[in-house]
């Protein structure tokens, strides 16, 4: 057991030593990146000196605008080149799949299709059954029956209730029943 304790203690010591080394390396890398950034900025971006007169300020602004336009043109050109190369890569990878015989399955989209269209697509010219259910329904004409006319003539149900309310309404109902 003493050997195990010694081995685990040694492992922990080695682990902590490795972590300390890694931390110092990370700090060194961060410092190196910062120095590199400062050097790059000093080289490519000279310190800004603002002139005193209005004309000199306008000239400086025009120069800055010209630089911005040139940088934007370069960025646009690079983007176009990138798009062309990605398109070429996609085409070449598709050709490669075609040559290998393995086809990349394209993403499928949902398509609204009627039952007729689906059967036509599956069976081709053999499909002769029409699945239009509405065409097979019977045409039914509404006939005006006496009940419907009576219901329309009754009108507002509240008037009917008012007439039957009270003793007179019950009397009418009683007399109608005889």
Automatic annotation (TrEMBL):
Sorted UniProt keywords: Acetylation, Actin-binding, Coiled coil, Muscle protein
InterPro entries for the chain: Troponin, Troponin_I, Troponin_sf
GO molecular function, one term: actin binding
Keyword Acetylation carried by entry: yes
Recorded coiled-coil stretches: 14-102
GO cellular component: troponin complex
This protein's record includes keyword Coiled coil: yes
Annotated TM spans: none
GO biological process: cardiac muscle contraction; skeletal muscle contraction
Pfam family name, one: Troponin
Record text on subunit structure and interactions: Binds to actin and tropomyosin.
Homology family: Belongs to the troponin I family.
Function: Troponin I is the inhibitory subunit of troponin, the thin filament regulatory complex which confers calcium-sensitivity to striated muscle actomyosin ATPase activity.
Protein known as: Troponin I, fast skeletal muscle
Taxonomic source organism: Cephalopterus ornatus
Phylogenetic placement of the source organism: Eukaryota, Metazoa, Chordata, Craniata, Vertebrata
Gene (name only): Tnni2
């Amino acid at each position: 057991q003493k050997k195990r304790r010694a081995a685990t203690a040694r492992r922990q010591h080695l682990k902590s030593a490795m972590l300390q080394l890694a931390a110092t390396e990370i700090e060194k890398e961060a410092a190196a990146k910062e120095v590199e950034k400062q050097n790059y900025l000093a080289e490519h971006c000279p310190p800004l000196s603002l002139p005193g007169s209005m004309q000199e300020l306008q000239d400086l602004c025009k120069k800055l605008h010209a630089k911005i336009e040139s940088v934007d043109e370069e960025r646009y050109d690079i983007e176009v080149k990138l798009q062309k190369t990605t398109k070429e890569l996609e085409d070449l990878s598709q050709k490669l799949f075609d040559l290998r015989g393995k086809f990349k399955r394209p993403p499928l989209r949902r398509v609204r299709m009627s039952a007729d269209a689906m059967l036509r697509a599956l069976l081709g010219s053999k499909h002769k059954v029409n699945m239009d259910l509405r065409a097979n329904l019977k045409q039914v004409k509404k006939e005006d029956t006496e009940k419907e006319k009576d219901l329309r003539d009754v009108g507002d149900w509240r008037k009917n209730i008012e007439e039957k309310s009270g003793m007179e309404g019950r009397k009418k109902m009683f007399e109608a029943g005889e």
